[in-house]
Amino acid sequence: MATPKLLSVFFPHLVAMLVFLDLANAQGLQLGFYKKTCPNAEAIVRKTTAQYISRAPTLAASLLRLHFHDCFVRGCEGSVLLNSTKNNQAEKVAFPNLSLRGYQVIDGVKSAVEKVCPGVVSCADILALVARDAVLMIKGPFWEVPTGRRDGRVSNANEALTNLPPPFANITQLKAMFLGKGLSVKDLVVLSGGHTIGISHCSSFSNRLYNFTGKGDTDPKMDSKYIVNLKSKCKPGDVSTTVEMDPGSFKAFDEDYYTLVAKRRGLLESDAALLDDNETKAYVKLQTATYGSTFLKDFSESMVNMGKMQVLTGMAGEIRKHCALVN
């Protein structure tokens, strides 16, 4: 068994090596990658995405989450889109992914692109572009999406369980997970701001309301009046009800999320955890005090950073014909 001293020497080198490999692959990405092979690809993605978002704007939050869940497991290579097979349970069926939505949008966009440029544009790139376009369509920020990702051939439910930051994670766990992926502490607090849109199931935070330490108590880090409000919506054992993550503003991409966190009204333990670290707390206070003066710009930059995580480029992986199936 490795000694703590040996681990303390080895782990930083391992993280550094993984980050170096990620950077090497990320250099295979470029803006306008399909300029010659499928010049209308991004326009087709944007138009088709708009058809879905115009009918169901709340899908924007779902598609952003789908992209996040893809990138944090094996990198941004479309593994979250794959179906299970007879001999393999895919990421889709892992507990944290059971509430994911928006697969039909990705399939619809892929089909539209395939009609014009068969076998050219990867599902991983389509997911990255769709997430950006969907957020922009609900008046969120724009960010450039370098393309050239290839699709992975492996999807494993257990890897989703170990790689996705859980809603009950503390700040130490969150920082370790983000740093281990080559992201920064700033990326952590900025990307958490994505919770400004969307909803959450009561089961993701009900322990904070009813049984935080196993003694039928509430989480002292949550505002007591907010607890009363949430209890009126989420009864003990409720696994189906959903609540807004940014009450009153959950359809708008704004800085209100940080105002709520500062008031101890972050819905998840991982939201509240942002007040437990000097750097993340300072960012929360900055956005609250300045009405989100840098949030949209910061979010765009962090999304670009996340979109480069562990990508497959060159001849690695494949270009799937159907996003739910390997070729």
UniProtKB/TrEMBL annotation:
Residue intervals of the Plant heme peroxidase family profile domain: 28-327
Binding site for substrate: 165
Catalytic activity annotation: 2 a phenolic donor + H2O2 = 2 a phenolic radical donor + 2 H2O
Positions marked as site (Transition state stabilizer): 65
Chain positions recorded as heme b binding sites: 195
Keyword Transferase found: no
CDD domains from the UniProt entry: secretory_peroxidase
Enzyme Commission number: 1.11.1.7
Subcellular location: Secreted
S-S bonds: 38-117, 71-76, 123-323, 202-234
Similarity comment text for this entry: Belongs to the peroxidase family. Classical plant (class III) peroxidase subfamily.
Function: Removal of H(2)O(2), oxidation of toxic reductants, biosynthesis and degradation of lignin, suberization, auxin catabolism, response to environmental stresses such as wounding, pathogen attack and oxidative stress. These functions might be dependent on each isozyme/isoform in each plant tissue.
Protein name listed in UniProt: Peroxidase
Species this chain originates from: Tetracentron sinense
Phylogenetic placement of the source organism: Eukaryota, Viridiplantae, Streptophyta, Embryophyta, Tracheophyta
